[in-house]
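User: Let's play a game. I give you a shape written as tokens, and you guess the letters that built it. Ready? Here's round one.
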């Protein structure tokens, strides 16, 4: 049996950055940085995103959470 240990949590915003010559949406990343793995709360992260949204010059397309874990034999 394996054990998994959470090491890192990060949140990235995907911001709309126009379209390419074929009309496909272009996106850029904006990182909220590494967040506390022990106290991460998705609702609070979205609250921060909602407050930041009006301050940004680009439209928020999506929000992504990335986690990094180690896996070891138990």
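Assistant: Ready! My guess for every position:
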């Amino acid at each position: 049996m394996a054990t998994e240990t959470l090491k890192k949590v990060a949140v990235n915003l995907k911001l709309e950055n126009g379209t390419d010559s074929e009309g496909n949406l272009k996106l850029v990343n904006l990182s909220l940085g590494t967040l506390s793995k022990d106290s991460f709360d998705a609702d609070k992260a979205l609250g921060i995103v909602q407050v930041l949204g009006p301050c940004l010059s680009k439209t928020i397309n999506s929000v992504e959470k990335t986690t990094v874990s180690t896996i070891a034999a138990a």
